[in-house]
Amino acid sequence: MSLTSIPTPEQIKRLPKAVIHDHLDGGLRPETIIELAKEIGYALPVNEPAALADWFYEACNSGSLVRYIETFEHTIAVMQTKEAITRVAKECALDLARDGVVYAEVRGAPELFTRKGLSLEEVIEATIAGYRQGEVAAKAEGLRIRVESLLCALRQNPHAQEIAEKVVKYRDLGVVGFDIAGPEDGFPPTNQLETFNYLRQEDAHFTIHAGEAYGLPSIWQAIQMCGAERLGHGVRIIEDIDFSGSKPVLGRLSAYIRDRRIPLELCPTSNLQTGAAKTIATHPIGALAKLRFRITINTDNRLMSRTSMTNEMVEVVKAFNWNFADLQRVTINALKSSFIPFEERLAIIEEIVKPGYLAVASE
Questions:
Q1: How far is residue 92 from each of residues 105, 151, 271, 292, 301, measured CA to CA in Å?
Q2: Interhelix angle 82-98/30-40, nearest 10 degrees
Q3: Spatial CB neighbours of 156, under 8 Å, sequence gap ≥ 6
Q4: What is the DSSP string of 81-150?
Q5: What is the Cα 59 distance to its own chain's centre?
Q6: Which of 66, 129, 258, 313 is 20 to 30 A removed from 250 (C-alpha atoms)?
Q7: Is residue 266 classed as helix, strand or coil in its secondary structure?
Q8: In the chain, which ranges are E strands?
Q9: Chain segment 210-258, per-residue pLDDT in tens
């Protein structure tokens, strides 16, 4: 076998992976939610792990925005103490490591976890502590992972500048960048233009959720007005490509994004839930990969989408007949696009990713 071979699901599981778009409050273990809810007397829809996992998945596939939002209300509700946040972050790191992830940037909005009196600093520090504990626990199992934190602001709330300042404060302590999430329609990223200017002046990294629920104007603003280094999702850039002729023709914006190698944080399974595609087989990732955009594969919300990096890779392999080399390319893309220093990205690629892919592909 070689890198041009088609990997099996078992081989994909063993491949080293990188994820740069994963939400902490969207990846809890159902068992943990139940235990934390019991500790604080919080009522859940169901109290059996498998049934609760089913409930989250079905709610997020219901087509009801109300039910989708409700799922996060439950996970956020049980993450209002330092101990709970640290536990969730530790388990996140360990679960990713068990799935073969060697590098992860996990994002969370600190303001969501201050309802019971925690400060933003306490939330951030508890999260970082959890990731470090998870790395140690993974090492004890013979696994290797590095997890860094992205701090999210919510575009509908007035805290973006404060969160950005925390990114700068903690950037050498486990926080590598800033993100803005929340509803795209009606809340353009330019509303926080001063915050993005501040981040650039501080030489701080940031990504922006754009081109998922809203279309090309969201992407254009994120890149050309706000200066985003990456696009959170960005899947709707496909709307700026004309496929009607014998050869795809890129529009000005899509050509700019491809030419500048601006990373797209694609989340195939999640994109199905939000309506960006009807099936994995029709997801834009296939066409964007052929056109050599800098695409990455990500999980978004592992609990809500009932997914993992292995699952995402298995699905695109089945849909597009990708081989080892294709999966290696998107993994290297993610690491090249990460917010850690260049030398550290390169070390992970050269020490773990390339040897790991070659070893599995050569079996």
A1: 11, 16, 21, 31, 11
A2: 170
A3: 182, 183, 187
A4: SHHHHHHHHHHHHHHHHHTTEEEEEEEE-GGGG-TTS--HHHHHHHHHHHHHHHHHHHHHTT---EEEEE
A5: 20
A6: 313
A7: strand
A8: 17-23, 101-108, 146-154, 175-181, 206-210, 230-233, 241-242, 249-250, 264-266, 295-297
A9: 988 778 999 999 999 999 999 999 999 999 999 999 999 999 999 999 9
Say if residues 249 and 242 touch (Cβ distance below 8 Å): yes
All structural domains of the chain, each given as residue ranges with its CATH number in brackets, are 9-28+79-361 (3.20.20.140)
DSSP, collapsed to helix, strand or coil, labels residue 165 as: helix
pTM, to two decimals: 0.97
Marked catalytic residue, from 91, 212, 312, 315: 212
Amino acid identity for residue 140 in this structure:
A
Quote the CA–CA distance of 361 and 280 in Å, as a whole number.
24
Q: pLDDT of 125-156, one tens digit each?
A: 999 999 999 999 999 999 999 999 999 999 99
Cβ contacts of 362 within 8 Å, gap of 6 or more: 1, 2
- The structure tokens listed for 121 are 């600093």
Residue 26 DSSP one-character state: G
Angle at 186 between CA 185 and CA 192, to 5 degrees: 105
Residue type, 184: E
For residues 95 and 79, give the distance between their C-alpha atoms in angstroms, rounded to a whole number.
18
pLDDT along the chain (363 residues), means of 10: 95 98 98 98 97 94 73 97 98 98 98 98 98 98 98 95 98 97 86 97 97 88 97 96 97 98 96 86 97 98 97 98 98 98 98 98 93
Question: Is residue 12 within 8 Å of 317, Cβ to Cβ?
Answer: yes
The dihedrals phi and psi of 175, each to the nearest 5 degrees, come to -105, 125
